[in-house]
Each structure stands twice: as C-alpha cells, then as structure tokens.
Design a protein that fits this description.
Layout (H helix, E strand, L loop, with lengths): L8 H7 L23 H14 L7 H17 L7 E6 L1 H12 L5 E5 L2 H12 L7 E4 L16 E5 L1 E2 L4 E2 L17 E5 L16 E4 L11 E6 L1 H11 L11 H9 L9 H17 L2 H21 L3 E3 L11 E6 L5 H10 L15 E5 L6 H18 L2
Parallel strand pairs: 2-3, 2-4, 4-7, 7-8
Antiparallel strand pairs: 1-9, 5-6, 8-9, 10-11, 11-12
Helix pairs in contact: 2-8, 3-8, 4-5, 9-11, 10-11
The structure holds pyridoxal-5'-phosphate.
Length: 391
C-alpha cells in the first residue's frame, strides 16, 4: 500500500503555491484555441439536444441552425449583397488545401510572419499545379506588407498571427487593381481574429476562419466569407480542367452551403455552440461591441506588462500588438514556464507560449468570450505567482 509518494524536489516549490481565491479570475481559461466556451452556450446545447443532437443534418432541425449561423455571420460582418457564407469540415488547415485548388489560379503572394501564415505558404509551394508562390517574410514579432504585382492572382494575408500575437489591418495591397479589373484576390486567414477584430468586407475576397477561437466553439469546421470576385474565381477554376479531390472542391462547398448544408456530416454540437456565440455577439452590439471588449482586455494586459518590472509586451510596435492574443515576454530571472505551471495547478490554464516560438513568455487569449475583468485578475495572479516564486 502506498503511504507516502515522494515528490521531485524541484517541483515542490511551485506545486505548493496557492493563489488566494480572491485574486483568481471567475473563469480560468485563457487558451488561444480551443478557447473558453461560455456556459450559456453549453446550456443552450443541452436544451436543444433532444430534438437536435442525433438528428439528420439534411433535415430542417439542423438546416435551420445552419441557416441561423449563416445569417448571423452575414449580419455580424455586414456582408454586402452578393457575398456568401460558405462552410465545410476540416478546419482552417483543410481550407488552405481547398484554397490551393479552388482559389489560387496560378501564383499567390504570402505574408509569412509566424507558424500559421507560413503553413499556407508551404501548401501553395507544394501544390504541383501552381507556380512557386512569392513569400514575403518579416522578423518574428512584426508583420510584412503586401506588394501589388500584376503577376499575383491571390494575396494571402493573416488578420492575427496566433503564434506570435501580431495583428495586421486588412487592406487590399496599395496600388493593386481591383479583382473586377483583373487584380489579385485578397484571402485572409482570420482564424483567431474573426469575431474579435474589425474588418471591412470591401477589403477581402475570402475571409476564412474556424470556430474554436473568437467563436468559443469547438474545432473541426471552417467558414469562408466569399466576395462576388471570390465566388467568380471558384466558378472559373471549377470549369477549368484542374483535377480537384472531391473533399477539396470549393464549388461543392459553395453549392451545399447555399442549401444550409455541408458536403459531409458536420459535428452538430459545434454548429450549435458556434451559432449561440454569433447570436450572443449580435445581441451585445455586433462586431464593434466584441472588438471593443477585446480592446479593453488588451489595454489591461499591455498596460500591466509595460508597467511591470519583470514583464513586457513581446510585440514592439503597439499598432501590431494583437487585441485578441497577447504575448508577454519575461525577464530572464523569471521563468515563464514555471509561472504557467503554477497558474495551471491553480486552475488557470493554457497561458503557455506557442511551443515553436521558444521564448520565455506567456500567451494569453483575450477573445470576446473572455471577460476583461478576468484578464485584469490574471495579471494580478501573475504578480502574485512571480512574487511567491522569488521567495
Ligand atoms: C488556429 C489557427 C489555425 C489552425 O486552425 P485549425 O482549425 O486547427 O486548422 C490557422 N490559422 C490561424 C491564424 C490560427 O489561429
């Protein structure tokens, strides 16, 4: 019988730190995806379950929720007439492959400034039916600018680079012809920005994302908001002789979405959680309200870091600092991994940095579901833990 389990001496100090309850945030989830799901969404799902979960996605019970989702997103993003809300299975990573088949005609340009943006560039580079992409990089913690060029038929931007906490405003490249006049499309990976950052639909042709970040749902789906020029490109490539695997066929996805369906079976729980979050955003006041909430959280986090003598915002330029995913560097004397471990032991989870960035930092999501008050409480908890670790 085990009467005494010895602990490793080096973990004793951190494991013993107990953050006082009065300092703790009401909700301890600060992960950048999957991210905090509001309990009210889960309750709405439980309530809908008997006539929704376990029913056919080709029938009204489910199709009406998909219709609510599509209408809600259209309203949230103030989509002009002619835009379509398209969705399918496989998450954003799948959509990159779909885009290499169904959106890029010959040659794309990619702003590559972190793990996620570099992955789409790599997918385009690997596609044998496309010319080598033009990849523009910048130093970690910054973002590059797109360069208008008549040879480019798709500019790949990223609204928020989740791996580094760098955000960029979405604008067509200065000097680029509009797609109606033969200029390249603008396609934006907005996986972690959509729903928490302002965007003008006139500036994009494809704005794509997944629901496990600002939309506080689960992963596995992708959504793409397509402009009329984006939809024209889909039609043009579908009519060409390019071979496209059925699962990556964007035209099939567009056709199914117009019928409030997906090509194959979606996770119904995810669809409902997602819809509930979109409607919560609209009830609060829409995108301006959610973005304002994220602005408030970001101001709390970055002001705290700037005033701290052991922490500082990783992204130097305030204009490039994300308001949805904050990255905070620590001085060498403070081990961020130890801080994250103590927070985790106290129920405050997923503040660890993006693994491949390899910095002494914490990464903190500030998505709309996350209460700015909880971000403030988290800052207080970090102060407490750093103080306790120094004892
Ligand atoms: C999370 C994330 C992805 C990956 O999304 P999946 O749905 O897991 O494929 C891609 N791009 C960005 C910017 C992200 O934040």
């Amino acid at each position: 019988m085990l009467t005494h389990v010895p602990r490793a001496p080096e973990t004793t100090a951190t494991a013993d730190i107990r953050i006082p309850d009065g300092l703790k945030p009401a909700d301890g989830r600060f992960g950048s995806g999957p991210s905090k799901v509001r309990q009210a969404q889960v309750e709405a799902l439980a309530q809908a379950a008997p006539t929704y979960l376990g029913t056919s996605h080709r029938q009204k019970a489910v199709k009406s929720v998909v219709a609510r989702l599509r209408a809600g997103l259209s309203e949230l993003f103030s989509l002009p007439d002619g835009y379509e809300v398209v969705l399918g299975n496989g998450g954003t990573t799948c959509f990159w492959d779909i885009a290499t088949f169904g959106l890029i005609e010959r040659r794309s340009q990619h702003l590559s400034f972190g793990e996620f943006s570099s992955k789409f560039a790599a997918a385009a580079k690997a596609a044998p039916h496309l010319a080598d992409p033009w990849i523009i990089e910048s130093a970690t913690g910054t973002h590059p600018e797109a360069v208008a060029d008549p040879d480019i038929d798709l500019y790949a931007l990223t609204h928020n680079e989740t791996s580094t906490g760098v955000a960029m405003a979405i604008n067509r490249p200065p000097g680029a012809a509009s797609p109606a006049d033969g200029g390249g499309l603008v396609a934006v990976d907005a996986t972690s920005g959509a729903g928490g950052m302002r965007v003008d639909p006139a500036q994009f042709d494809a704005y794509y994302f997944a629901p496990q970040k600002c939309f506080a749902s689960d992963g596995g789906l992708w959504v793409a908001l397509l402009s009329p020029a984006g939809l024209d490109r889909v039609e043009k490539l579908a009519a060409s002789d390019r071979w496209v695997p059925a699962f990556f066929d964007l035209k099939t996805c567009v056709d199914n979405s117009k019928l409030d369906q997906t090509y194959n079976t979606p996770a119904l729980a995810t669809v409902l959680l997602f819809t509930e979050q979109v409607e919560w955003m609209l009830a609060g006041g829409g995108l301006e309200w959610t973005a304002g909430r994220c602005d408030r959280s970001a101001e709390i986090l970055y002001t705290w870091a700037e005033q701290s003598d052991f922490a500082m915002p990783f992204v130097e330029k305030p204009s490039e600092r994300s308001h949805v995913v904050g990255t905070i560097d620590f001085v060498e004397a403070v081990d961020a991994a130890a801080v994250a471990a103590v927070l985790r032991a106290n129920g405050i989870v997923d503040t660890e940095p993006y693994r491949k960035l390899g910095r002494n930092q914490l990464r903190i999501a500030m998505f709309p579901a996350i209460d700015p008050e909880d971000v403030a409480a988290l800052c207080g908890c970090i102060n407490y833990v750093v103080g306790a670790l120094a004892q």
